[in-house]
Fold this protein.
Amino acid sequence: MARLVMVSNRVIDFNAAQQAGGVGVAIYNTLAQQSGFWFGWDGQIDDDPSSEPKSTTVGGHTTVTLPLTAADYNDYYLGYSNSVLWPVFHNRLDLAQFEAGYYSRYVEVNEKFARNLAPLIEPDDVIWVHDYHLLPMALELRKLGIENPIGYFLHIPVGPAQALLAIPENKEIARALGAFDLIGVQTQSDVRNLIDFLQQSVAGRLLPSGRIRVFEAELEIGCFPVGIDPNDFAFGPGEAEALAATETGDIHRIIGIDRLDYTKGLPQKFKSYGKFLEAYPEYRRRIVLSQFAPPTRESVEAYADIKAELESLAGSINGLYGELDWVPINYIHRTIPRSELRDIYRTSRIGWVTPLMDGMNLVAKEYISCQDPADPGVLILSKFAGAADQLQDAVQVNPYDLGDLVQGLRTALEMPLDERQARQKKLMGVVRKSDSNAWGRGYFEALSKAGQRRASRLAKSPEMRKALERLQGEAKKNGRDGRIALNVGT
Ligand code: GDG
């Protein structure tokens, strides 16, 4: 079987894989199933320009990592990735820092990654690139003569074409996307938005084959909803009975677990919780909202703003409704160990997930996989999370409508046992069927086929060959084809 080469901005430490969440776990689980390696940033800052990639093998799994310089970290990571692409793809143009001039270093870091990765690639390798930090990666690898299948999976949502078109470099981005063989996204609406964007940005043409023609390239786009491994959260015999430390007695816990991000709808969640306590005083002292919101990207201004807003909202709701022996909101701005998540999910009567826009949202799937089928809790899920397409049996809400959030909470709290059981059964069926293995396998197979189709088109089309040679010529002229040697185990 071909080796799988995973490429992502951040590589997780295999020694600590059990501690990771989200994207990292999905990539790790996929790579654990087959030979290959994982390439990307090691999380370190190092200004030494001669830093070489480092190869590490743990338990038969190899990572190859590079540090970033302080300027890379600022412009490529905090800047273009998280202050331009992240807000725009989440349809928050108001927060995008277009004028800051981050783009050139964003491309440079992609070039640097490609230059260090290219010498490690063998002829049968399949290369799978992840997320918005690495949009130009395939183009940079093609310039260096890499003709292997290269796929891309975008973990975040694709906002409307009108938002993406506002990016000053939108044409360069659209052209770079054409260098991938297959782009995977989370939902059908993401597929539609991406096609729409390519059509408007660079006159991409939808072909009868379903592929999109972008200049000389033909690109496939598909929907591959990411999953979790429910076994990561499974209870062994007797384990579920020993949850005393996280139990809340007669008070029902409503759990929220979200990185502290302006896309997660946290102010809406807090405000509607306050309105709920106002409208239904009989629930005071009977419920508590425990919101974990670990910090991320704190040096980006928009994140500091949302932190201040939430602290103020939690303070005012607790001040208004709290009692000596009851605090309505437990707001915890720290990361909790992953080993504790399972028990907290299990002992929470409601999982409350309210993003304004989200690629998938794995917390929703994690909450479901921890419930007791005999006495399950209820998932309340925003219609605007990618997960809403699959998790139809959650209580779905519109987080922009505080009244709808209030009613969703009431419906969930009052739901009879038989209905909770029936919904949980269906939801768990979906979570199991579309787990992280199914996602990894499905995408890998689709990418391998897309790569074969491109290779046969390339063999037949002198125009495609010429376009590729032009690209490689451009890179040589710019002196970017220096190769380095590094041995990587399989
Ligand atoms: C992207 C997309 C898409 C959260 N707080 C703590 C903690 N977590 C873990 C959760 C979960 C993960 O982080 C968050 O999952 P998300 O699905 O929200 O995604 P991200 O990784 O942020 O981002 C998203 C995903 O990619 C996958 O494609 O679903 O839409 O934005 O696993 O459990 N884990 C620990 N402590 C915390 O305090 N240990």
Notes: The two ends are 11 Å apart (CA to CA). Residues 436-460 form the longest helix (25 residues). Confidence is low (pLDDT under 50) at residues 481-490.
